[in-house]
Design goal:
There is one protein chain. Helix content is 38%, strand content 16%. The C terminus is likely disordered. It has two domains: 197 residues, Glycogen Phosphorylase B (Rossmann fold, 3-Layer(aba) Sandwich), CATH 3.40.50; 168 residues, Rossmann fold (3-Layer(aba) Sandwich), CATH 3.40.50.2000. The protein has 14 helices and 15 strands. It is of the alpha/beta class. It has a seven-stranded parallel beta sheet, with helices on both faces. Strands 12-11-10-13-14-15 form a six-stranded parallel beta sheet, with helices on both faces. Helix 2 packs across helix 13 and helix 10 packs across helix 12. The two termini are 36 Å apart.
């Protein structure tokens, strides 16, 4: 426990987003970060309790089952029992912003994707309450989206602490074989750009018929999606492409997290063709393995992938531009090797140690500040303290 935490002991209660299944493996980046936040707190000697709608068998989670289907009623049905069970704890709520209005002076709302505040947030009774809470984002891009949508929330209540990568789990290993290989990992939704990637791959194969495309993940990864029919359609297209003669597409399926470092290390380069992306943890994990990344210039991805140093950024939704970037790194081996050397250096800027320091400082400041005070140690804004260092040159 840090000296400040010893002087001001507190406990933290995490609330997972509705629909998440905690303890599942594989899982999405949001659940990975929630689990790592818990580990950071426990290693600092801070007691943690975890709440979720669903959890895998054997997981230490208090489940809050839902019966209502109406959004407002469902939110209250989910959040109120959480608050009643934790009357004194610091509340760390993941993508459940109703908690901000219900317990404004002891809540931090952590966002992993774009989520608006409840419709009633500007009502006279609720506005000052939502203005007193604290809002935590993984990227400057998401912070800006939130502030543009909620201009009456004070800027110093909206902070950024980037996600981190476990550099001891994700590290470079010697690659076996020399076949040019591109890899994608994630949920097969329209927003992840899988259909764009498949169109781009048709172009790549005309120039490099020996190149391979490996797809990890699937249509049901992590939790039920609101785009269920679209994900099933994407899965159907993937199956068609995989079976098509000469396309060299391999479906690896949903892989446990322990196998992902081997997946990234087996590639020539990784691709993240998302149409929207709050952060993009898969890009960071690939970089940590020394694998260059081609990613969309969207959301938090440009804050991870330094264009022209450890990867290339392309316009989202453009299969021609995506194909050209893939071909550039597949054909230009000296450039690809230079990017690979810089990739690990870039990932080290997002270490778990750095995130732990920033997160603990934020939580302790929230406890010490109480009420509507700014978190302790924020001479300017908390986001300036927490934001990653500027991009540097790779070795």
């Amino acid at each position: 426990m840090t000296p400040s935490a010893r002087r001001n002991p507190f406990r933290v209660a995490q609330l997972a987003p509705r629909g998440a299944v905690l303890g599942a493996d594989p899982c999405g980046g949001s659940e990975v970060m929630q689990r790592e936040d818990k580990q950071i707190l426990q290693q600092a000697g801070i007691p943690v309790s975890v709440y979720a709608e669903k959890a895998a068998s054997g997981t230490s989670v208090t489940q809050l089952p839902l019966r209502s289907n109406l959004p407002l009623l469902t939110s209250l049905e989910y959040c109120l029992p959480y608050l009643r069970r934790e009357p004194q704890s610091l509340l760390l709520s993941y993508n459940e912003p109703s908690v901000a209005g219900l317990a404004p002076d002891r809540s931090i709302i952590r966002f992993d994707w774009t989520t608006p505040l409840p419709r009633y947030w500007k009502f006279p009774f609720w506005l000052p309450r939502f203005q007193r809470s604290l809002y935590l984002f993984p990227s400057e891009s998401e912070r800006k989206i939130f502030l543009d949508a909620h201009p009456r929330i004070p800027e110093d209540r909206v902070v950024v602490i980037p996600n981190a990568v476990d550099t001891e789990l994700f590290y470079p290993r010697e690659r076996q074989g020399h076949v040019p290989r591109v890899g994608f990992a994630g949920q097969w939704t329209t927003g992840k750009g899988v259909d764009v990637l498949l169109k781009a791959w048709e172009i790549v194969r005309r120039t490099l018929p020996e190149a391979e495309l490996w797809l990890a993940g699937g249509p049901g990864l992590w939790k039920a999606t609101t785009e269920k029919m679209k994900t099933l359609e994407t899965a159907r297209i993937v199956a068609q492409v995989e079976s098509a003669r000469g396309m060299n597409v391999k479906v690896c399926g949903e892989m446990p997290r322990s196998l992902m470092p081997g997946f990234w290390n087996s590639l020539t380069l990784a691709v993240v063709p998302s149409l929207c992306e709050a952060f993009g943890l898969v890009a960071l994990e690939a970089l940590s393995c020394g694998t260059p990344v081609v990613a969309s210039r969207v959301g938090g991805l440009p804050e991870i992938v330094s264009d022209g140093e450890c990867g290339l950024l392309v316009p989202p939704g453009n299969p021609d531009e995506l194909a050209q970037a893939l071909l550039t790194l597949l054909i230009n081996e000296p450039l690809s090797r230079r990017f690979a050397l810089a990739a690990r250096n870039r990932a080290m800027r997002f270490s778990t140690k750095r995130r732990a320091h920033d997160l603990l400082r934020l939580l302790e400041g929230r406890v010490i500040g109480g009420g509507g005070n700014r978190p302790s140690g924020s001479s300017g804004s908390q986001r300036e303290m927490a934001h990653p260092m500027p991009a540097g040159k790779g070795k």
